[in-house]
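A student in our group prepared the protein record below, which I am reviewing. What it holds is a sequence and that sequence's fold in token form. My question to you is simply how this chain folds and whether the tokens agree. Do not assume that whoever made the record got everything right. I have pasted the whole thing underneath without changing anything:
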Amino acid sequence: MNTATNAATNGEARHDPRRWWALVALGACMLTLGFDLTILNVALPRMATQLHADTGDMQWIVDAYVVVFAATMLPAGLLGDRYGRRRMLVTGLAVFLFGSLLGTLTDSPGWVIAARAGMGLGAALISPLVLAVLPSLFTDPTERTKAIGIVTAAVAGGMPLGPIVGGWLLDHYWWGSIFLINVPLAALGILACLLLLPESRDPAASRVDPLNTLLGVAGLAALVYAIIEGPVRGWGDPLVVALFPVSVLLVAALVLRERGARRRGIQPMLDLDLLRAARFRWSALTVTLATLVMSGLLFVVPQYLQAVLGNDALGTGLRLLPLMGGIVVAARAAGPLVAKLGPRLVISAGLVVLAFAAFLGARTDTGDGYGLAATWLTLTGLGTGLAMVPAMDTALTALPADRAGSGSGLLMTVRQMGTALGIALLGSLLAQTYTSRLDLGALPGELPPEAASAASAAEDSVVSAHLLADRLGLPRLADAADTAFVHGMSQVLLLCGVAALAGALLVATVFGPAPAGEGAGTGAGAGARTGTGTTAGTGATGVSNGGDTTTGTKMAPPEADARQ
């Protein structure tokens, strides 16, 4: 009787036309997550002006989302498995909607940071669970594969659309419109989930450990806070000095508890034993390094394009397209190249191209136009795609079939940590270099007495300096700020180039050949291989990737079966 009922239910689901409308709504939600980070990067200069935010505030506006997302993605997926995926997906959409609405209505950096943290929590629930509910909507393997491809394409399409949509909104409306656009899309997703999605859960799912979740959030947040506040408070400040060992202790406690979970008969949230496999370990390191570089650059470059080169928000979004285009081209070329040359050579070559692009960009001067920037941005995208896609593929195909979920979850977690650390590290280097190089003493006699104290606000960011220069009619102040910023950007790019070269050398040295039988036709390997090629490049910028996080919520086996 149960078999007949299930068959009837599956037949109804297969022929229910509403499932495609549900897919459209879910795709719209993933599209929103796809461009949410890139749309914010374009808006940062405008927000800095209107919110009086300094560089540290801007770093936190971006990192608050990433830190919360990285630390809560795994427990969020487990909550959906355990208590109902539709229920938790609706909860995530509601949290994301509320955070977006709060970001729209607020008028201070602190509240925007709080709103972004809420959006990160919502995204952590949405990203893995959108794809986790697709098998209950599309029971036919062919349809399920098509649905997964559509949702994955929505994530990938959001990346280049983000700067363009954000630029258009900022040119016509106030900065809060970049958050307001999320509200109707999230509301549509909630309605679709309630009306069209069946509930599904995994009774055998691991339980969520609240203490481990808290340790992960606190440890990563303490490290990021120390890095961001170092240039502001001083690296010798007692709070900054204390936070580094505190973060190490918190992360160490998390690792020890996760390692002890298996001995207690509990499935760990982070399967750290997978790092013992050399190919998985070094591939994960490559993914994290490429993500760190890309996320830091996406924080720095929009400020250069807007403040120094004088482009508006839409112009900035369009001028970021060579970066996105390079990633897309490289993602398509990576598969054939790996088939001919092997992953080690392609990954190393990608990192070398990334290093060359960074060193070329480090030669930028204030008098250079967009031509040079377009060249090194294109090369940056190409290098990132060539390094990221094979590294993601190699890491996931190295996983045993029975550990595909925990392995991909671990990979996505360390990748998001790379995003948070990239923004914190490279943003702090930019802030410290800019402040030290900005020569306000080069303006003797030009500042009226009442403006002399206000001029120190120019040290907050290049955007603040330009705002002050326009108000006081001091073009030399704007020129000094541009010189200091470009010097700071050059230091950031030099560090990125050195890190990429070191990564290339490391991969070429330690990235050995695949063990016999590794990834050869296993369910995990097949699912990971086909599921990564489309989206890994887009994930390089730190945006949550539904296709990658699927396996963390028991999606790997159905997806692998459908694609084999």
